Amino acid sequence: MKFSVLLAVAGVCSAYSGHKKTDYEGAFGRMHQSFRKLEAGVKSWTGEIKVIRGTWDSYFPVAHRVVGEFKRFEKLEEADFEYITPAFERAVGSAQRTLEAYKLKKSIVEKKKLCHEFHLKAKEHFEHEHQFSEAFFSKIPSRLHKKVVTVRERFDKVVTELVDVYSPKNCHDRGTAGYHG
């Protein structure tokens, strides 16, 4: 009798761990897809402000929902973490490609005199990605933090660089001498 109870408990624990991995993997998948849509929207943007605002309006609700999900998730164990690391890597890679797309649009942003608006949006990205990173890293046992520090640094670098690209010192609205009001 005790043996069957132990097997049942082991089965529940295994299923729960799998559920935990699936939750995280799903959240990272949504984040990855959200970045891909954002990247595509930025790449195809030709300067119409309503279009880019629509792209942002599609991205941020999903991104904020993912942060909320992470806050509710259970802490990860090492095996869970190892399992979901590729999904996190994909999300960071998507963020990097999105940054590159944003950088390619800087001349249009300057020409359309949208530096200030893009700088504010870059700061919103920075704040969100910081919340995303904090929510995720709070779920990792401290003994695993050093394993992910390079991934976190890459993620932080992406959003810091985005803010810098559109900062008043680097993005200058033509005819306004870089004034961002």
What is this structure, in a nutshell?
The protein is mainly alpha-helical. It has helices at residues 2-44, 49-72, 78-104, 106-111, 115-137, 145-165.
Mean pLDDT: 82
Tell me about the largest β-sheet.
none
Secondary structure category: mainly alpha
Q: Total strand count, please? A: 0
* Shape call: elongated
Number of helical elements: 6
Distance between the termini: 74 Å
Name the helix and strand elements from N-terminus to C-terminus, one letter apiece.
Answer: HHHHHH
Q: Any low-confidence stretches, pLDDT <50, length ≥5?
A: 1-17, 177-181
**Cα Rg:** 20 Å
User: Number of folding domains?
Assistant: 1
Beta-strand fraction estimate: under 5%
Helical content (DSSP H or I, runs of 4+):
over 70%
Report on this model:
The protein is mainly alpha-helical and about 180 residues long. The protein has one domain (about 25-35, about 50-165). The chain is about 80% helix and about 0% strand. It is built from six helices and no strands. Mean pLDDT is about 80; it is low at about 1-15 and about 175-180.
Key features of this structure:
6 helices; mainly alpha; disordered C terminus; 181 residues
Write the layout of secondary structure elements.
Blueprint: H1 2-44, H2 49-72, H3 78-104, H4 106-111, H5 115-137, H6 145-165
Helix pairs in contact: 1-2, 1-3, 2-5, 3-6, 5-6
